[in-house]
Design brief:
about 110 residues; single chain; alpha+beta; HIT family, subunit A; 5-stranded antiparallel beta sheet
């Protein structure tokens, strides 16, 4: 999708700090990190959000990639948080399915 920021990032049209990628998924550093480790994981194929996903395999790969990011960034053992915002009131600002992988500090609850 030409006007989608995350489609443009995952295709290399917009520069990013790549953490990892494969045929289906793309993970990159958040430009406004909320924790010492803050990585976004997106499918390369455009999907608007969780309500549009419908593909169990895609959702599984998204979470599997989040776990791979945690291992690569060295936070898998100490702990990390995976967040998926859905819809405007849920805090979603880019309407391309993605999860945030956050870690490197103690996470608190409730998050806000």
């Amino acid at each position: 999708m030409a006007d989608c920021l995350f489609c443009r990032i995952s295709s290399g049209q917009v520069p990013s700090k790549v953490v990892l990628q494969d045929d289906e998924m793309f993970a990159f550093e958040d430009i406004n990190p909320q924790a010492p480790v803050h990585v976004l994981v997106v499918p390369k194929r455009h999907v608007g959000g969780l309500n549009d996903a419908g593909d169990r395999a895609l959702l599984g790969r998204l979470l599997e990639t989040a776990a791979r990011v945690a291992k690569k960034k060295g936070i898998a053992e100490s702990g990390y948080r995976v967040v998926a915002n859905s819809g405007r009131e849920g805090g979603q600002t880019v309407f391309h399915l993605h999860v945030h992988v956050l870690g490197g500090r103690q996470m608190t609850w409730p998050p806000g």
